Fold:
Amino acid sequence: MFKIKFSYFTNWQTSFFIVFALIYYLFSLLTITNPAIPYKSIIISLFFLITGIIVFAVGTNNLKKKKLIEDIPTSKIRSLAMGLVELIGKTSEICKIISPISKTECVYYMYTAERKVATKDGYRWEEFRTIKSDLPFYLEDDTGKILVDPRNVCFDYCYRFIDYTNGGNTRYKEWYILNKEEAFLIGTAEKSNDFLQQSKNDFVETIKKLKNNKQELMKYDTNKDGQIDIQEWDCAVDNISNELEQKQMEALSLDPLADVVIKKGSFNDTFIISEKSQKDIISHYTYTGFGYIALGILASLLAVVILSFSTNLNF
Structure:
């Protein structure tokens, strides 16, 4: 099942198809000689038309992703640039995470809970809960490591565990990424807000400690009047700021990517982590892209066919 986003309909291919399909549908509706088209026929034909447009939009979006993956070169972690990047490496845990269903030690997990729902043809599974760990982990290669914030990631893995409870009426599917497991990642590299926030917190905490330590504070009493005036206080603040900046520079010299994170970007929301190779992912988006486009066109044509033959169809 695919999720629909408004952005799927904004590319020129989909916009052109929507306009063409609507004009063709309205033209067919107006040129039908039957003055009393059954309402059921119109409703069914509109269902196929809307479905066709949606499926076509998903297809063009998949081809767009395929082109994007093809155009982005795979980077080494140490030499990556800010912006959209493509990486291959092994996961590395920050802290131990235990998946809740299979109790597997991993760096990331997701599970869904589904209930069995009766239908006229038997039954189907209906998802009623999705839980993700969303805790960060590292991706590393032979040049370095970088932090990954997995929130809102497109998680392209096959489920690895399934369990049934409640007499077989509830099903749990679980996906997870193991520590030291190879992964393919596309996401946006940008400065970490957590790193910047930690720097601000360190600065505020150091200032508080200085205010509460009179002996240390008096070191900035340059005129020896027993008080800290505005100029002396500004000097103290500048000194603390420079010291913390120096510590940050030392930390970054040891790890140049300490303040960088891979996440879902604000301007480009492509964010995929997969167990598949780049070649397999490109093949998947190629086949599904052209397949959905073909199905979308077919469904839209079927909408017109239903209208045209509505008098002969027994609805």
